[in-house]
Amino acid sequence: TSEIHDALKRLDEIGVHGIPKFIIGGKRLVDGAAEPQMFVDIFRDIERRGTIYGGPIFGNILGVDNETVTRGSHSAQILNDVA
């Protein structure tokens, strides 16, 4: 489908040519084999700032509405209801 082609094009544009890769905050590209401290540092930086630099990179491509992006798909309430 065109959505898949658009997503693959976007991945190529940001330098993802293999897996596993993590795209954090819509901007940071981290190799799956990165040391755990790298992830800790990135998430602590986001926590300090209170925001991320970029938004979701596939939201528009996959048709995810802004409300879902803002709210998130895994709220504490949802997780508590499952537990």
Strand content: 5-15%
Query: What integer value in Å does the Rg equal?
Result: 15 Å
Q: What percent of the residues sit in helical stretches (DSSP H or I)?
A: 40-55%
Query: Which sequence of SSEs, written as H and E, runs from N to C?
Result: HEEHHHH
Strand order of the largest sheet: 1-2
Outline type: flat
User: Which structural category fits the helices and strands?
Assistant: mainly alpha
The number of distinct helices, counting runs of at least 4 residues, comes to 5
Mean pLDDT: 78
Strand element count: 2
Overview of the molecule:
With 83 residues, the chain is mostly helical. It has a two-stranded antiparallel sheet. Helix content is 53%, strand content 10%. The mean pLDDT is 78. Strand 1 (21-24) and strand 2 form a beta hairpin. The protein has 5 helices and 2 strands; from the N terminus they run αββαααα.
Q: Can you lay out the helices and strands and say which pair or pack?
A:
Elements lengths: L1 H13 L6 E4 L3 E4 L4 H14 L9 H4 L3 H6 L4 H7 L1
Antiparallel strand pairs: 1-2
Short structural summary:
With 83 residues, this protein is mainly alpha-helical. Helices cover 53% and strands 10% of the residues.
Offer a few descriptive terms.
mainly alpha
